[in-house]
């Protein structure tokens, strides 16, 4: 059986590599990374597909019962090989498409621990296989930088203010310190724009505010109802302050902005930073967030890592001031690189 499976993998790889070679020869920059192909087949592609089907149909492996065939495929192949094999027959493709546990495990092995955010992203994508393919495509596009898939970003934005909330105020805290590059800063403001555009589509009565911080804080936008043109102008006109990373002061400033709000209003702090602070600064920020949550209530904290050498552990420590059990699901690395900026 092992030899038969190896033969099938070899044939599928050769067919897939052949298609990629012709794609490169035509000057295409896109490589197939998943078995979904929506465009009609060309005559040449149809011939290749016919060859793969004949090879697969002649393969004794396909005579196995469904359960044994599934185990042979899912316990003996890499994601790339499984995608290649899946193109050989409808039966093999069905096994690949329905192997949610396999793709979930492969996603976790490649990109780390899973949280509720990834689970919701898989539902949004339609399956764990689709989420895996989307994240792999993102890796290829942005390597060596690590970015989440578009599905994960969409879910992260949606989670800021659930549809069930009647009113909310979202304060975006943007790191303008010296360790943040212009590209990092642009990534942060672009995410804020995307988040506010989504919030504007909801029925929830939402106000937004923008605070930039370094050693000090600068109020870029006071809490106000969403007016997209106005907010876009503010974000596009921002420039970095430089200096240190005083997250505690930023949280305190957010608390001051939120204090006049109605008691029942959802209060959301969205921290965008590289989190490059020492343990003392992190403890101060955690304590300040804890104080805010205790004094005002209905406070939710989210963190998004951007830049080189993002300190995920310290960011989780800060946002765990409110509901530590869900902190992992309230953090997302937007654009990170595991190296020091210096």
| SS class | alpha/beta
Largest sheet: 6 strands, mixed
Q: How are helices and strands ordered from N to C?
A: HHHHHHHHHEHEEHHEHEHE
- Tally of alpha and pi helices: 14
How much of the sequence lies in strands comes to 15-25%
Any low-confidence stretches, pLDDT <50, length ≥5? 27-38
- Computed Rg: 24 Å
In short:
With 342 residues, this protein is of the alpha/beta class.
Fold and architecture overview:
Helix content is 52%, strand content 15%. With 342 residues, it is an alpha/beta fold. Helix 13 links the parallel strand 4 and strand 5. Helix 1 packs across helix 4, helix 6 packs parallel to helix 8 and helix 7 crosses helix 8 (128-142). The N and C termini lie far apart (53 Å). The model is unreliable at 27-38 (pLDDT under 50).
Question: Keywords, please?
Answer:
342 residues; alpha/beta; 14 helices; 6 strands
Topology:
Elements (H helix, E strand, L loop, with lengths): L1 H24 L17 H15 L8 H9 L4 H8 L3 H9 L1 H12 L4 H10 L2 H15 L7 H11 L6 E9 L6 H18 L5 E9 L3 E9 L2 H9 L10 H12 L7 E8 L5 H18 L2 E10 L3 H8 L11 E7 L5
Helix pairs in contact: 1-2, 1-4, 4-5, 6-8, 7-8, 7-9, 10-11, 12-13, 13-14
